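Quick question, first post here. What does this chain look like in 3D?
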Amino acid sequence: MTERYNRNASSWLMKSAASSADVRFNINGVPFSLDRELLAARSAKVSTLLKRNSPELLPHLLQDIPADPETFEIVARFCHGFEPELSSESIVPLICLAYYLGMDESHSTNNMLTKALTFFEQRVLPSWNETIKAFRAAETVFQQAVDLGLVDACLKSIVAKTLLDPCFLGESIKTSVNEDDSDDDANKYRPNARRRLFVPDWQPENLITLSLQLYELVIHAVNQHGVPSEHIAASIFQYANRWVLSGNTVGDNMLVYKNFKRDVIEAVETLLPQQIGLVACSFLFEMLHCAIIFEASSDCRTGFEIRIGKQLDQATVKDLLIPVQGYAREMQYDVECVRRILKIFYSNFSTADISGFLKVSELMEGFLAEVANDIDLKADTFISLAEMSVAASFGTQRTSDGIYRAIDIYLDKHRYIY
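> Answer (accepted):
Ran it through. Tokens below.
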């Protein structure tokens, strides 16, 4: 990319040999040479600086210019008489740069700021895809975009469109796929009938491509404006699946990788709606496991445990097999974590819902049988777990044959105790 801008910028550099009126800029290592009079004719800031300072000082006085080479090239070409080539990807940085340079109508008619704002309002904001592209690009000039109201404008556009069609966020996980659907199918967006009829190849820009900073802003905004929780949860599930569970990396720096994963995990726990059943219990267990591995905050881990406890009757034995982290471990699985989750289940389930207790009772017996194979599981811990399994079935009038089976397994694996 740098080579491209070096070639494009060379045309401005070539003029400097024949003209002493040029001013040189270095934008992120890419050299530019502009006619200062043409630049001043379009930029109120440059015009004012030239009246008060020597032209040689201009690059120094503009060293904080908020621009990347691509954006600065658009402005440079515009000042030299070329019509600007505007796009959704470049429009937010371009507006910020034009505002910084004072390229408004009070200084020069038909100026860059008006052109850019008109494009933003008429070509970007009405479209979901173009708004997401522009919003994504706002990351590079985030504070300026916030100060100019561009971030807020993008958010309002996104919220308005999701209120009309929540499936822009993602279809409800509960209704969009069947149990036998593949994971790939679960992450596909399925356009409504009107969109399939008139624009069969149209695919929406997915929010999961946004940075975490921008994504959190979107989720907070749509949540505040009453977008259905099931669609918000579907989007968060997709975001976590891409950036936490899929193994995607961020650069080669392992510390950056770990910190990023932890930030996403903590954000997911905070952003997920509180309603029970919006996401699968297995997903919550996966996120809890990742929260432990990447050393997320205790509040984050507790948050996932609480969410799991409220729908523990939907879990499987495999879900409960959470490995203990670290080297000095006394057992293979995190029994204490399961104990905490079970207590949360007890405190949130009504005794009138006997089916939930039956499922958890059977679940705990299966879990007990699995951990009984752990050669490092101490007898007092096993007894405590057995008592916990009995408590889970208390009052359900079901037999506890699973507990006896688990005891047989434990005694067989731990013959040294008798």
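Residues 125 and 153 are 8 Å apart (CA to CA).
Confidence is low (pLDDT under 50) at residues 1-10, 12-18, 175-200.
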